[in-house]
Structure formats: structure tokens, C-alpha cells
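Page 42, continued from yesterday. The earlier attempt failed because a stray header line got pasted into the input along with the sequence. Redoing it now with the clean sequence only.
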Amino acid sequence: MTKDKAEYEILDYLLIKIREKLVRFAQSANGVNAVDGANEPLKFYNRIVENGLIEMPDIGNGYHKQDYDKMLEHVDFILNNSVNTWSLGFLDKLYSSTNAIGVISDLVLSILNTNSHVFTVSPILTVIEKKIGYEYSKLFYDGYSENSGGLTFSGGSWSNISSLQIARSYLYCDSKKRGNGNYKFAVFTSSHSHYSVEKAAMLCGFGSESVFKIEVNSRGEMKCSKLEESIKKAIENGYTPLYVNATAGTTVFGSFDPLEEIGVICEKYGIWFHVDGSWGGNFIFSKELKNKLKGSHLANSITVSPHKMLGVPTTCSFLLMKDKRIFVTANSLDAPYLFHKIKGSVESGDRRLSQRELLESYKRKDDGVRSEENFNLAEGTMGCGRRADSLKFYLSWNYYGKVGFGERVDHAYFIMKYFSEKIGVNKRFRTLNSFDVSRANEQAARPPCLQVCFYYEPYEIGDKTMNHTPITRWMVYKFHQLNKYLIDFSPPVKDAHNEGEFFRIVFINPNLTTEFIDQLVEDFGVVGRAYMENNPNWRNIANTAQKAL
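This time it went through. C-alpha cells are written below.
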């Protein structure tokens, strides 16, 4: 194709060419054990380690355009050296492939190529974000707040970070101008929470030492008695308790903190209550599982990420607020060159309301919050340019509906239970996060979310004094070499297990079947026996590693 064509003609040509490549990439992941045999990211990684970036295709001398077909060769190279998340064997992270609707939504955003910071350049996208944010928030706050809503942020971590910054700027409005000098803020979170809470404290200028890690129980849930004890001690030591983060679905074990009890404590001390539901928050769509989120309506803010459990393309994360007006109150600056006011607004100004009064202002329509409806969405954030990620969720919600999302979550939970129960009767497996007990069968304990953490012990070792790290790492690497599965391992969790690294497998792909799970368990036996054969002195290796713990 010649290079003097109009851009839309070039687009038409390239879409036709690339369609076959992309469909083939997705199609290669179909089937019980299918992965694209051409995809060898592990071998590519080894070559990079050995040879450096010389393995990368030449980007040209920078002076002349490349031929379109030459550019498509780069696409082939990228696809062939990428992990195929469409594969059933992708069990590594807290997300899976997207779907046809997701791909189309990303394509629409690319063709629009606009910002969603001000209404004038993204009118319909602004309305969509406000609409979908409201509908999403209603799942948690319906009947408890008429002003709830949400905005998208670039990932769950940034949603969490923004929630802490908003809590500080709203509850202590003078800190927006004067900083933290007048306060010694304290942040509370469980010892199993996501690291973004600590990073948020660093970014807000509190320092990581202002984050108090609360002890968890044997199920990985925050101990409320320890939380209140820590709050009291912080007050005695001159801290200003600002923010409590509760986790709905921890990264490793998938545990859910007792939200209702934590909410009561936060209300008692006038502390901002945030729920990090980036992973487990979308249980809200399941009739069976949403009870795990009981008490979330007490939260001032909630992080939820459709790109994890619901298959929306990355990234798509929402920060939901009990009162959406606080986004602007906490973040707004006068920037008339960008944010053209439609009408006047009411702010608290420099009038200092007490922390309790501000938290109570949700129940009123004045004091402490701006009353106008905000259509310049960036005013509610700390940034400016922003992608309209909400469109991806909006189109998925329209296509699948709440019922479809619920069915997806329920199927994933069913598959997780099937795997957990299957390995539960196999003495070579030892599950570490089977905390939930079935009402029908009290012996059938299961993990609380969609990931299963376990040790694998070939030949029924049953030795709890050994360090499992050598065998776990060897087997994970071997699984990768088979180019059949991508699975992960986790280091020992503080206050939980001290027998070395363990497997953590996430069951979230909506196409997973019981037949696939049967094959996975069988392959664990194959790879485990291979380890024993290749490491006849495995017990000495384990004992030596145990001494290093």
C-alpha cells in the first residue's frame, strides 16, 4: 500500500490486516490445554538476559517511515513474545483476558482519542462516567446515600492513594494550602493489606512510619480489638487518627476484613473509613457472595476494579464515594483556563468544621461540600489528562448486565471451589487459605475469594518443618517451560506460615472447566515427580533452605 493515502484509508487497510492476527491470537487460547505454541515469553526472557536488548527488532534510523507491512511484522514479534492471557492456563494474576466487548471498547476509545478532563471535549463520555459511577456506587450505598458516585483512576493502587489524599484534604481543608505541618496523621490498615496504602502515606507526606499495621486473625482478617487498641495508643502518642483501610479480598489469601465492625469503630472516633475492594469488591454482583461485603455501606470511600474480576480491559478502576461532591471539594483549584464555571458554587472556605461534622455532612446538602454538579471530571482528581476508562465498563455492563456479571463471578467461585475440594482430598496438597466453612458440610472449608494458596508435597511428604521454597520455585519454572500454564508463588505471609514459598493460583477465566482443573491437578503430579527424579537429595535441599528462614 502506498504511503500517500488518507489516514482513514490507512486505518481501513491496517484493520483488515491486523484483524486476522488478533483473532488468531485469541483463538489460539481455546481448548482445555491450549496455548499458542509460538508464544515463548520465557525463552525470550532468557535471551534478553543473555544478550540484552539486541533481541529487539531494529526501530529504524528515525528519519524515514517504515512500510506498513514492515510495521505489522513488529506486531507479530510482540504477539509471539507476549503472555497470552486469553489462555485457560493463565492462572498467575488477579485478572484474566478481556473479551470481545472489551476489545471493541478499547478500539472506540482509541478512535475518539480524547481526554475526559473537561466536558467540552468529552460530552458523552463525561455523562457516561457520571452515570456508570452512580449505578456502581448504588450497589453499595443504595438506601444510605442519595449523593453517591464514582470516578475512574488508573488502577486500584491509584484509587487507594487518591482516597487517602481526599480524606486528608477534605477533613483537614487547611492542609490543602499549608500542608501537614499542623498535624501528625495516623493511618491504620491490616498487616495483610496492599502495599499501596503505605505508598499513599509516603506520597501524602505522612511517611511510612505513620501507617500502623493491625494484626490479623488465623483467617487473615483484621482484628478489630487490635485496631481500636492501636487508635487509642496513637492518640496518646500525639497522632491525629485520619484513615482506616479495610480490605475486601486481600492480594494473597483473599481475606475479607470485618467491614461492619470496622465501620462502627471509625464512626466512634470520627475517622475516614475506606474499603479496598479492588479484588473482592465485585462480589457485590453475586447474590450468594455479596454478603462478604456486609458493612461496606458504612465506608466513606470504596475502591473497586472491573478490570480484575469482571474482564474489563486494563486499566479500569473506580473510587466510589458515599458523597461524590467531595471529589471536587477536596481536589479543586482555581484553573479558569481549563475549568470554565457554569454557575456559582458553595464551599466551606476556610471555615474549619470538626472531623465528625464533616463526616456527618453526608446527611445534609450544605456544610463542607460543593453543591453544584461537576461535569469537568478532572476537577475531582489530582490530575488533568485522563482516559475515559469508564466507557469500557459501561459497554460491558450494557452487554452482560448485572446478572451476567454475577454469573461470571459465581462461575469463577465454583471453579475455585472445585479445585480446592479436589486437592483437599489429595495428601500431596496442603491448602493454606481454606478459611470459609460450608453450612452444609462443616468439613468442606474453602478459600474466601478466587485464589487458592497451597503447598505441594510429592510422595505425601507431610513434613511441616521443611522449607518448600526450592520445590515451589522449581515446579513453577517447570510449568512455565511446559508453555502450558503460567502460575505464581508467594513468599511466606507474616504471622501466617513459615515453611517457605507456596503456590497461589487464581481462577478467574470465565471459560475454565472442571476438565481443565482435572488436567491441572494431574500435571502437578507429573511435574512433582519430575522434581523428585531431578533432585534425589531434595530433603537435604529443603532442610538447608529451612535453616535460612
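Notes: Residues 390-424 form the longest helix (35 residues).
Reminder to self: strip header lines before submitting.
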